[in-house]
Structures are given as structure tokens and as C-alpha cells.
Design goal:
mainly beta; 2 domains; SH3 type barrels; disordered N terminus; five-stranded mixed beta sheet
């Protein structure tokens, strides 16, 4: 068939327009079916639109030493250790492992140090870590002999006898030190609904833990049945040395766990 000049030009312009269009993939229907009769070389696998998941965020966890080991200021120090620990000590791992060491929080010193990963293993989270932000907390036992323990993480700093409230007036529960008075005067007239009458001056090292006046303090007048037995109006009375230690060691916000 012989093309006229007009038909030739019309066909040429249409071809040029088609070549100018951007290339697009073949429609899915033109690919070989994925039923064993086709080939992935023709269609290829279906493109994935899901993004690969990134690494999950790091979550701190607790470990305990099963070997005696040294603590280090950096991940790579070989000299100048900052102390040593015996087996059974707790640490909180703060970041992913760096080389052969772990960055940990040491609750006994409230500091961050490095420890060899070969010396520790995972343990359950200690209950006191939920509230002892700086590692300090007080553990009070109301069962006789009544006593108080000052704890720095898992380390016992002090254990001393106390006299708690008569007839269960010192209530079990969770408290924090709310305010402190170095030298207090305790007057029964300031206590709502008080049935006792007293005026006690020079009550040293008073640390209140309830809004109605319960406190840890030096008891200079002595409990009627001796320390270790109930004998107060709800406070935790102590001897001089123990109450002075807690005054110097604790502070506003220090947690107190009181139990039977």
C-alpha cells in the first residue's frame, strides 16, 4: 500500500508523541501468573511498601554480680578502677553494651560506672527501684523488736531499734519525709483530737513523714518499755546515735516503707 504524504506525516507525528511519553511498568495483568506456569524473571516479586522496622528502643534492666569484679570510669579503662564489688550486688544497666563492659547505675553510690559483662547476669527488678530515685530508702518493721533500716539500694547502712505508736497508731504503708526540724518542740495542743497532754522541748533530728505529725526523731525521755517496743503517740522514736545518723543521711523526699 502506498501512503500519501498526508497519511505519512500523521503517522509520524503519532509515533513521536508516543516516544515522548514517560516509561511506565507493564500492568499486573500482563505478568506471568504466579501459579507455576510463569517466571519471576518476567514479572519479578511484588514490590513491598512496608518499611523495615528499626531497632526497638533500649530498656534499662537489672543485673547482679556472680563474680567479684572491679568497677571502671569508662568502657575502655585498664587502669584507675573506681572500686570493686563482691558477688550478689545489684546494678541497673543503662545503655547497650560497649565492648566488653556495661554502663550501669550503682545504687549504693548513686553513680554511673562500667562493669565487665562477664561478671553479671540478669535478675528481677528490685521493688525499691520504683521509688528510691537516689538509692536511699528506709525500711521500718513494727513487729517487735521494732526497728528501722537505712538502705542504700541493696546495702544496709544502719539498723537501729525504734519505739513506734501504741495501739497501732503507727500505720503500715508507704511514706516520704515531708519536712525536717533540727530542734523541735512537741506540744499536744497542736495535735488535732489529741487525748494526751505533753510538752516536749529539744526533740532533736525530727523528720516528719505524715501531715498529722508522725515523725522520726530523737527520744530523750525514753519509751516506757524500752526501744524495740511500742511506746509513742505514732512517731518513730530513736536513740541519739541512730537519729543523728538519719538526720545527716536522709532528706526531704526519702521514701519510708513501714510494715509489720
Amino acid at each position: 500500500m502506498k501512503l500519501s504524504r498526508r497519511l505519512f506525516l500523521r503517522a509520524a507525528s503519532g509515533a513521536a508523541a508516543a516516544l515522548a511519553l514517560p516509561l511506565t511498568p507493564s500492568p499486573a495483568a500482563a505478568c506471568a501468573p504466579d501459579d507455576g506456569t510463569g517466571s519471576d524473571a518476567i514479572c519479578g516479586p511484588a514490590p513491598s511498601t512496608a518499611r523495615p522496622a528499626g531497632d526497638p528502643p533500649f530498656e534499662a534492666f537489672w543485673v547482679a554480680t556472680h563474680l567479684g569484679t572491679k568497677l571502671w570510669p569508662t568502657a575502655s579503662s585498664v587502669q584507675g578502677d573506681v572500686g570493686s564489688v563482691e558477688p550478689g550486688r545489684l546494678f541497673r544497666v543503662e545503655s547497650p553494651q560497649a565492648g566488653y563492659r556495661l554502663l550501669v547505675w550503682d545504687p549504693r553510690e548513686n553513680r554511673h560506672v562500667y562493669i565487665g559483662s562477664e561478671a553479671v547476669g540478669p535478675v528481677e527488678t528490685p521493688f525499691w527501684s520504683a521509688f528510691a530515685e537516689d538509692g536511699k530508702w528506709l525500711d521500718v518493721t513494727l513487729t517487735t523488736p521494732q526497728n528501722i533500716k537505712a538502705m542504700q539500694g541493696d546495702e544496709l547502712m544502719l539498723r537501729d531499734l525504734v519505739t513506734a505508736g501504741l495501739q497501732g497508731t503507727t500505720k503500715p504503708g508507704f511514706y516520704r519525709i515531708l519536712r525536717r526540724v533540727y530542734n523541735e518542740t512537741m506540744d499536744s495542743r497542736t495535735i488535732p483530737n489529741s487525748t494526751d497532754t505533753y510538752l516536749l522541748k529539744d526533740v532533736m533530728f525530727t523528720q516528719y513523714f505524715t501531715g498529722d505529725g508522725a515523725a522520726i526523731h530523737y527520744n530523750w525521755w525514753g519509751p516506757p518499755r524500752g526501744f524495740g517496743n511500742p511506746g509513742s503517740h505514732g512517731c518513730l522514736g530513736m536513740r541519739w546515735d541512730g537519729s543523728k545518723f538519719l538526720w545527716d543521711w536522709a532528706n526531704i523526699g526519702t521514701p519510708i516503707v513501714i510494715h509489720t
